[in-house]
Design goal:
The protein is mainly alpha-helical. 79% of the residues lie in helices and 0% in strands. The protein has one domain.
């Protein structure tokens, strides 16, 4: 009995060590991400969406998907916030391809997640931003090519949600948003670090290199596939990605995970199925998997 207790104590010390090291590495990125994310959500969100609405009278044609992607990345909303906003954009005459580009890039990335991803290093951060941008571009191009004269989305029943940021005191408005942000991400952040510590303790480095390392398409496909069930919160996956990259995961595999994760997050898929219908929803899943695989292979080659 004493031997078992000694083993448990030793394992706890090891896991706590890994947990503490990674917590110290990532904590300030999490704090900064929340501070900036809440600031944009309270003070810049409406301006970003007004800029997108202002595009509808521009004669940019297919090239409008470029600013649409950039504004989608700048938007701080989650999927359930993006869809009602997109529904209001449609009512105001927004093009389908621009909407597709905006929504795709908004699903994949936001200012808060950009700050979080800084913990992965400059290379991984740039890969994430560029790959998400081009994923939005690809989505817009496909909708332009195949649904130019048809509606791709069905926003029936969706209306813009009431804003929670209505306190007349600007400081209180910001602090309330920050509090909601902490409650929404804090638990996932800690769970992500704990899972990372367990991976570092019990998963051999050789296994990570074998499965996710190198330039093989298999490792990229595996990372893309794992992104579907594992991804629950952007901030929560940063500790996992950091430890996986340290253990030998290739940057291409990481990029595939960073695309399929948010694009197929379980809480997002239900809403996407409603606005797309089964046929287009399955096409969306296929597009995400193929794009992540292609993107991962290109990243590894570069």
């Amino acid at each position: 009995m004493n031997d078992i207790w000694s083993i448990l104590q030793r394992e706890f010390i090891y896991i706590w060590y890994f947990f503490e090291v990674q917590f110290k590495q990532i904590f300030w990125y999490w704090v900064l991400g929340m501070l900036i994310g809440s600031f944009i959500s309270v003070f810049a969100k409406n301006h970003i969406h007004e800029m997108f609405v202002g595009m509808r009278n521009k004669r940019w044609g297919i090239f409008g998907i470029i600013p649409a992607c950039l504004l989608g990345i700048a938007s701080p909303l989650c999927m359930y916030g993006t869809i009602p906003i997109a529904a209001s954009f449609r009512k105001q005459g927004m093009r389908e391809d621009w909407l597709a580009a905006f929504m795709m890039s908004s699903i994949l990335l936001n200012p808060q997640l950009i700050i979080y991803s800084g913990a992965l290093g400059l290379k991984a951060l740039l890969v994430r931003i560029i790959s998400c941008f081009f994923c939005g571009i690809a989505a817009g191009l496909l909708v332009f090519c195949f649904y130019r004269e048809k509606e791709f989305f069905d926003f029936t029943g969706f209306s813009e949600r009431e804003s929670h940021d209505t306190d007349p005191n600007l400081l209180m408005r910001y602090l309330k948003n920050l509090g909601r942000n902490i409650r929404a991400t804090g638990l996932y952040f800690l769970i992500g670090i704990l899972l990372s510590a367990l991976f570092q303790r019990y998963v051999p480095q050789d296994m990570m290199v074998h499965v996710f390392g190198g330039n093989e398409a298999w490792g990229i496909l595996m990372a893309a596939t794992i992104g579907v069930p594992v991804y629950a919160c952007g901030g929560g996956t940063i500790p996992l990605l950091q430890s996986w990259l340290m253990e030998g995961m290739s940057m291409g595999s990481a990029s595939a995970f960073m695309i399929t994760g948010p694009a197929t997050k379980i809480t997002n898929l239900g809403a996407l199925k409603i606005v797309m219908g089964w046929k287009r929803f399955l096409t969306y899943i296929l597009f995400v998997m193929l794009f992540s695989l292609l993107c991962g292979m290109i990243v590894n080659m570069i």
